[in-house]
Amino acid sequence: MNSIAKHHITWKRYADEIGFVPITKRMLGKIFKYLDEESIEKIAKDLGGTVPKELLFLSYEKMNFENMMQILEINALRFGIVKHNEKDGKHSLNIHHGISKDFSHFLACAHQSLADDLSLKLTITNSDKNMMCFEIEEPK
Questions:
Q1: H-helix or E-strand containing 136?
Q2: What is the DSSP string of 66-90?
Q3: In percent, how much of the chain has pLDDT > 70?
Q4: What is the mean pLDDT of the segment spanning 90-97?
Q5: Domain ranges for the chain
Q6: What is the C-alpha separation between 14 and 19, in angstroms, rounded?
Q7: More confident call, 114 vs 134
């Protein structure tokens, strides 16, 4: 119940204001099929931190690492199942989207761009046609 409520008050609440439109996974897969690697990386770098930062500033009073991790999880839920664990300040997120390898590459580049912007350490632990997994931590 908590995750449903959290999803509603963060993601659903601001979806129209931010300008989200619904799109099927099948359509996303088709779109990414026609993009080359350079285009995917350029789009990811350009848009990587936009949505999470907008959601964060609309949902929380301040930007900090823990709030950002909550927003990354909520944002990733729109693509499928997300497993989020935290141990000793290191967060692991596994995003099972089931779209395509190119979409995993997009997610990896987008998250890397966000991490670079915020000086966070990010390590991609898996990227395949169904899921993208990473570890992220705040520098000490």
A1: strand 131-137
A2: HHHHHHHHHHHGGGSEEEEEEETTE
A3: 84
A4: 96
A5: 2-137
A6: 8
A7: 134
